[in-house]
Design a protein that fits this description.
single chain, 194 residues, alpha/beta, Maf protein, 7-stranded mixed sheet, 7 strands, elongated
Length: 194
């Protein structure tokens, strides 16, 4: 069944996700989901982002009025992972500097899960991209922290910002590293007839 959806609800306050959706030709109503983002014991980075994306969609579903309930909900969660350690959003500048020191000169993964919920059905997709970052000096990290570009970013960096200069190569989805993998998002919405 083909449905004509003018807008979707984006269960995220990320301006990057809203921009990516606009580039895909999709208008969205932003409704950030407020959930506990603590990692569970022995939870893998991929299971972590899948759980949070689903949880965000379910929380927003419970807050909709009748008119909003006619729109699909799209939620996403991104985590930077080095082996089994998850690097979420930094608590402060010192935390950001510590994360960047650990990621410096590494190959790490960026996991982004996408959840789409419509008509009581929910579908999930996971994108994992391998990112290789050059070695960073303390001075490079300090100069970057001073720009405030690290704020509200998983792993304390944004590939589409100044830190993009440090990324030697990626194996996977550039938009996935930004926080919303375009292909997986498109395929999930297509599954619902969008």
């Amino acid at each position: 069944m083909q449905i004509n959806i003018q807008k979707i609800i984006l269960a995220s306050q990320s301006p990057r996700r809203a921009t990516i959706l606009m580039q895909m030709g999709i208008n969205c109503v932003v409704m950030p989901a407020d959930i506990d983002e603590s990692q569970l014991d022995n939870e893998s980075p991929s299971d972590y982002v899948l759980r949070l994306a689903k949880q965000k969609a379910l929380v927003i579903k419970g807050q909709l009025n009748a008119k909003q309930a006619e729109m699909p909900i799209l939620a996403a969660d991104t985590a930077v992972a080095l082996r089994d350690s998850i690097f979420g959003k930094p608590e402060d500048d010192a935390d950001a500097a510590e994360m960047l020191k650990k990621l410096s000169g590494t190959q790490h993964q960026v996991h982004t899960a996408v959840a789409v919920m419509f008509n009581q059905q929910i579908e999930l997709a996971l994108n994992t991209t391998l990112v290789e970052m050059m070695p960073l000096s303390d001075a490079m990290i300090a100069a970057y922290i001073a720009t405030k570009d690290h704020k509200d970013k998983a792993g304390s960096y944004a590939i589409q910002g100044l830190a993009g200069n440090w990324i030697k190569r990626i194996d996977g989805s550039y938009s996935g590293v930004m926080g919303l993998p375009v292909h997986e998002t498109f395929m999930l919405l297509k599954r619902f007839g969008f």
